[in-house]
Structures are given as structure tokens and as C-alpha cells.
Design brief:
Layout: E1 11-16, E2 27-29, E3 33-46, E4 59-73, H1 86-94, E5 104-110, E6 117-129, E7 138-145, E8 150-151
Antiparallel strand pairs: 1-2, 1-5, 3-4, 4-7, 5-6, 6-7, 6-8
């Protein structure tokens, strides 16, 4: 059987929209995403010494941070009164808060049966919106991880 490539569009990002202090999270999808990228930034320190007679160095990761960069198009319902997508709105609101109260809980996972699924606490930064007169309104943001992400059971796995 031939191997097939995974589709990037199978990632889903959800944000906890439960009230602060709620005992159980309310996972709400962030709709309208057109780009999703999780990455890490590793701090390494040189670990080589004179005992390595072959002349090869050695590095050790001493700290690792994670982030998610995403973009999409802002969404709303068709109701006469403006009602934004609740996942997008939670991120937009969190982008205007500073300090520890700016932390939000997110989870991201693949919808295609792959085991990749994670949860973490983060802060929203670099939130942008707007566009030109002929554009559908775009938005983009970066989620900066607060501590290690936790690998979870994929919520859509059978």
C-alpha cells in the first residue's frame, strides 16, 4: 500500500470558552482558519569539552517554548444583530488583555484519525484584522505557550 500525504487543513484549533473557574472546559472551534502552524523555539547550550578527542561538539536543549501562528477570515452569523464566531471572539478579546488574566486554554488536533492532539495554556499576541476595500476581512494571531503543552487523546479518534 502506498503512503499518502497528510492534508494541512485537517488541523482544528479549539479554545475554552467556559467562564473563568468553571470545573469543565467548553471547547469551541475557531472557525474560518486558512493557515495553522505550530512551532517551537529551542534554547541550546554548548556542552562540548576537551574530553571529546574526535573534535565534535555537543549541544543540550535547556529550554523550549511553543507557539501557534494562525490566520483566517472573520466570521459572523447571518442574523441582523452582529454575532461573531465565538471561537474567534474569545481570541480577539484575549488579545486585548495583559498579565495572567490574558491566559487562555486551547487544544489542537488532527481531524483525520492521526493521534496528534495537544492542549495548553497560552497568551494571544500579534492579533491583526482589517484589509482592503475588496477583501473579506482577514485576521491573524500568534498564541505563545505558557509552559509545556500536554499530549491528549485525540477527541475525534474512534
Amino acid at each position: 500500500m502506498a503512503l499518502r500525504s497528510l492534508l494541512a487543513r485537517d488541523w482544528r484549533l479549539e479554545v475554552d470558552t467556559a467562564a473563568p473557574g468553571a470545573p469543565v472546559p467548553t471547547w469551541t472551534p475557531v472557525k474560518g482558519l486558512t493557515s495553522f502552524e505550530r512551532s517551537s523555539d529551542d534554547n541550546t547550550e554548548e556542552d562540548g569539552d576537551f574530553d571529546d578527542e574526535a573534535g565534535y561538539g555537543s549541544s543540550v536543549v535547556t529550554q523550549r517554548t511553543w507557539q501557534i501562528e494562525a490566520e483566517g477570515r472573520r466570521k459572523r452569523t447571518e442574523a441582523a444583530v452582529f454575532t461573531p464566531d465565538p471561537g474567534q471572539e474569545k481570541i480577539r478579546q484575549a488579545a486585548g488583555v495583559v498579565g495572567f488574566s490574558a491566559n487562555i486554554k486551547v487544544r489542537w488536533f488532527r481531524r483525520d484519525g492521526a493521534p496528534d492532539a495537544y492542549e495548553g495554556v497560552c497568551t494571544v499576541t500579534e492579533y491583526t484584522s482589517g484589509g482592503e476595500v475588496t477583501d473579506l476581512e482577514p485576521f491573524s494571531f500568534t498564541l505563545l505557550g505558557q509552559g509545556a503543552p500536554v499530549e491528549i487523546d485525540n477527541p475525534v479518534a474512534p
